[in-house]
Amino acid sequence: METIQSIAKGLRSQQTPEEKKFWFLLQDRRLSGYKFRRQVWIDKYYVDFCCYKAKLIIELDGGYHNRASNKLYDLERTKYLESQGFRVIRFWNSDVNNHEKLVLEKIRERLFSPSSVPPLNQKTSKGGTSSPARGEEKRK
């Protein structure tokens, strides 16, 4: 039986050319000092790239994501991830290939924009506190 770690390792070794190119741009905190991980398992989904500190997920989509059944799956997946406190941003592979600077600028905007997710232990509108159960760090 394959483990989550072995599946993720396999996905990392079988990246698309666009994922390889994009990982080069993100790895080693190259994008504004933020740490990203690739092929991350979050609850029941693998995501292409994730910055836990900013609660930002980046997905790169090929043409197969344009099929109706895949659009529905992607929508359900995005809604679930957002319900877990993440923000999800998607780019077409062609955007990574042809508009790299614009893609990076859009990601920077998301990294520096306020999240709709309340920071840890901050009072919510209902008087409760947000949960630190998912391992995220408190924003400074």
Structure report:
- The protein has 140 residues and is α+β, with helices and mostly antiparallel strands.
- It has a single domain (4-112), classed as VSR Endonuclease (Endonuclease, Chain A, 3-Layer(aba) Sandwich), CATH 3.40.960.
- Helices cover 39% and strands 18% of the residues.
- The protein has 5 helices and 4 strands.
- It has helices at 4-13, 17-26, 68-83, 93-98, 100-112; strands spanning 37-42, 45-51, 56-61, 87-92.
- The protein has a 4-stranded mixed β-sheet with strand order 1-2-3-4, sandwiched between helices.
- The relative contact order is 0.14.
List the helices and strands and how they pair.
Blueprint: H1 4-13, H2 17-26, E1 37-42, E2 45-51, E3 56-61, H3 68-83, E4 87-92, H4 93-98, H5 100-112
Parallel strand pairs: 3-4
Antiparallel strand pairs: 1-2, 2-3
β-sheet strand percentage: 15-25%
Distance between the termini: 41 Å
Mean pLDDT across residues: 78
| Tertiary shape | globular
Largest pleated sheet:
4 strands, mixed
The level 1 CATH classification is Alpha Beta
**Rounded to an integer, what's the Rg over CA atoms?**
16 Å
Number of strands: 4
Briefly, what is this?
With 140 residues, the chain is α+β, with helices and mostly antiparallel strands. It contains 5 helices and 4 strands, in the order H-H-E-E-E-H-E-H-H. It is 39% helix and 18% strand.
Keyword list:
140 residues; alpha+beta; Endonuclease, Chain A; globular; disordered C terminus
